[in-house]
From TrEMBL:
S-adenosyl-L-methionine binds at residues 50-52, 86, 127-129. It comes from Mesonia sediminis. It catalyses: 6-carboxy-5,6,7,8-tetrahydropterin + H(+) = 7-carboxy-7-carbaguanine + NH4(+). Homodimer. Residues 31-210 form the Radical SAM core domain. The keyword 4Fe-4S applies. This is 7-carboxy-7-deazaguanine synthase.
């Protein structure tokens, strides 16, 4: 396959810059504790300074893989497939979600929502970032809102974001891992005073799994 042919397939979503894929336990948010297959797509320009997968930012470091092959491997392991990144919505998600659905799988996404929403999603986890806010469509589609708490000013940001999503959207505050010991007590107090919020922890890190 020539580079030009490859680029065309990437542009249509028939190939994707796959960083890694693995079968594990979902560690965060509403579906924490369930077995799921994760597909991590390379490429992100949102640029969070505390990002724990900075190696995902440069899509050029992650050679394109055929979407059909990615999906086959995923469905061989699990019916729940989580597409994450990086920022997966930088790419056309229609082919991958269509293939997962055709194979009887459930499609979950974890995204900043900063790009046009493509794909058919059974569960849409929106994790907005200050550097590049979500699109209006992403706010509308969100089943859960997950705001990362790095400092106390993030509570104000969380409320601003909560005002943008639908009334049925589940609201989560999640401590950034490196400051969890400092922020968790503040989060506990905040949720007790504002019970519309729930606390999400990165339980996979406590379990020492991917």
């Amino acid at each position: 396959m020539t580079k030009k042919e490859q680029e065309k397939l990437v542009s249509t979503g028939e190939m994707l810059p796959l960083m890694e894929e693995f079968y594990t336990i979902q560690g965060e948010g509403f579906y924490k504790g369930i077995a799921a297959y994760f597909i991590r797509i390379g490429g992100c320009d949102v640029g969070c300074h505390w990002c724990d997968v900075k190696e995902s930012w440069d899509a050029e470091k992650h050679p394109p893989s055929l979407t059909s092959s990615i999906v086959k491997k995923a469905l061989d392991n699990s019916k729940t497939v989580v597409v994450t990144g990086g920022e997966p919505l930088m790419w056309n998600m229609n082919p991958i979600t269509e293939a997962i659905k055709q194979g009887g799988g459930n499609t979950h996404i974890e995204t900043s929502g900063a790009y046009e929403v493509t794909g058919v999603w059974d569960w849409f986890c929106l994790s907005p970032k200050k550097n590049k806010l979500p699109t209006l469509e992403a706010y509308k589609r969100a089943n859960e809102l997950k705001v990362i708490v790095y400092n106390k000013h993030d509570f104000k940001f969380a409320e601003e974001q909560a005002a943008q999503v639908g009334e049925d959207c589940i609201l989560y505050l999640q401590p950034e891992w490196s400051v969890r010991d400092k922020m968790i007590p503040l989060m506990v107090d905040y949720v007790m005073q504002n019970p519309k919020w729930k606390i999400s922890l990165q339980t996979h890190k406590y379990l020492n799994i991917p």
